[in-house]
Structures are given as structure tokens and as C-alpha cells.
Amino acid sequence: MSIVVNGIVAPGFEPVAQAFEQAFAGRPAMGAALHVRQHGETIINLWAGVADARDNRVWTERTPSVVFSCTKGLVSILAARLVQEGRLDYDAPVARYWPEFAVAGKDRVTVGQALAHQAGLSAPRADLSEDDIVDWDRVVAILAAQAPLWPLGTGYAYHAITHGWVAGEIIRRVTSQSVGQYFRSLVTEPLGADAWIGLPEACAADCAHLEVSPPLSALWADEAAKPAPNWPYKAMTLGTALPADLVSTDGGFNSQRIRAAEIPGAGGIATAKALATIWSSTVVPTEGIRLIDDGITQVATQTQSEGASVFGGAPPYSRWGFGFQLDSEARRYLSDGSFGHDGAGGQVGFADPRRRVGFGFVTNWMMGPEDTRATQILDALRPLV
Q1: What does the alpha-carbon distance between residue 176 and residue 154 come to, in Å, rounded to a whole number?
Q2: Is 1 a residue whose pLDDT tops 60?
Q3: What pLDDT does residue 45 have?
Q4: Which of 155, 263, 286, 301 shows the smallest number of beta carbons within 10 Å?
């Protein structure tokens, strides 16, 4: 295999490095990085491939990439910290913190239900544009005014991108900071982690360029061809705001305009090291920081939503706590106690409390259901930790 893998692996973890190297087979346009910490210390730090296949810019240890729905997990850490501090209550109505939300039958929606994809706002009823989604006040006002897509208490559906605005506005009302500002002050600055919700212009040129595999593109084309209203598809595109593949050559999440906006359902940007460091700090002191304690973790990771959504869909199904994606048939982590979130195209970030592990895998080669890269890496890691 011609790929050159850079970095370090602690003795005994060589099978994980081999699984990482194998992930590049037959994928010459791929770049990726893997970082794993246990008990707060780095045991694996690897990177390889190209950050931008258009000019063959190489992937480095500091290359950040869009992590898509991994961002929901990061935002859920922020919410859990506020619950831990007594500033937010999962059982309280969203309207306690965001009064404008209490319209169109949403007055009884709780913070926990909103985080667990049960608020009925998985997609906008009206088509949104790119101009809408880069304007925080505009998009949260639209969601606050909207009637739910299904009756409260009758089920859930994945809030693919809207989740971040709903959770982020709750956080903004509690902290008086935007979600990106609070993330920076609570998480990334203390940890020294290269992660952002709203990418600064100064970092734009370093970000990996995203490419979509043909099977994933075909999957989205099939979804686009289904008759309207196709709410799960609209949950991803929001109307005309994003391309069907989430990226185009210079558009969607390859656009700095989108990356610079705070889109906390899918727009986080991070290195693999940053993801692993952040998740490590949720289960063990890391770089001197412990973000949430074991007590709040036990509460926040109780299953709230699982099984088929209100719009149906075939198994395997995911499982969620209060915003955190839990171990399930759809996304295997290290154990049934692991919690985190994966992201479109193959991104994975999570923590395992029992093993005291923080894990981050990021890639710019986006794949669909055929993707086994992170799964094979985790299969190699599981018996070693």
C-alpha cells in the first residue's frame, strides 16, 4: 500500500494503526486522522493522505475538517455542563429560557425532548435559503414560530441540522453567549483544542476539502427523487439552503461562508486530536480539565429516543440520550456505555467512561452505508483497552 501514515502509536496498539492504514485502500483522494486518548494520555495519533485532492495538499497533524453531526455531541456537552451547574434543567420547558418558543403547540416541549429529537422541528416547513441559515436570528425565529411536524409525545425524528439551532439558542439564552463563543470559552481555549463552531477566516485555508464517494452521492440522489414532502431529506437540505450531497466543489460545507456561520447541528470543524481531547475530558481530567462529571453523564446518557422514527425508515436504528448518540446497531462504539456522536461521511467522536477513552476520527472522503472505516478501527481498538 502506497499511503504514508504519520504519527505515533503506543506499544501494543499496532493493530489499530494497521486498521487505519487499511482505510485508505483504493481511496487515493482521501485524507484522514485518528486520535485516541486513554486516562487522559495520547495512545494513538495518526494522520495520512491528502487534505485537498484538487492540488494534492497533504493532510497534517493540524488539519481540521468539517465534522458534521459530531457537532451535536459537542453542543450536548455544553448543555450537560449547564445542567450540572444548575443553570439548565432537562425537564423544564424550552419556553422557560426562550419564551418565543411557546407558540404553535410547543409550550410543553422540554429541553430534554428538544435535545432528544422529539420537538417536531426536524425540518423547516418553508424552504430555507443559504442566506437564511447563515443568519442566526432569522433561522431561530423561523423555528420558534413553526408548528411541530408531529404531535408532541408521539415519537421522534432525527433533527439533522435544526437540532443545533434549537439547542444553541437555549444555550445562548442561558449564557448570554453564542454557542460558538461558549464552546470556545468553556472547551477549546482551556483544552487548547483546534475545534470551532464558526470557523475563523484565519483558519479557512487550512481546512480539508470535502469529497463525496459515488455510492453516497447516489443515495442522496435517490432520496431527492422521492415525492414531497420528504421530511428526512428536507432535514438535510433545509429546502434550497444546502446541496443534496451537503457539499459541492465550492459550496455547502466546502464554502467558507457556511463554515464561518455558527451551524451547530452540522457545521463544527475540528482536528481528530481536538475531538479525542474534548471527549476524553468528559470522562477523565485531560490537560487539567474535566468538563462534566460522572453523575451528569449517567443522567444525560439515559436512552430517550430509539427505534423507528415517526417517518419510518429501515433498521439499524440509532439511539440517543439528551443529545448524545449512544452505542447502537447503527453506530457501534467501544461498549454500551459509550456516548458521543458520529457525523456525515464517516466522522466519529465519543467517550467511553469505563475505559476512560476519548476517540476522534475525521476524514474528507465522505462515504455512506458502505463505510466500514471507523468500525474496523474500533474493532481493532476494543480488545486492547
Answers
A1: 33
A2: no
A3: 98
A4: 155
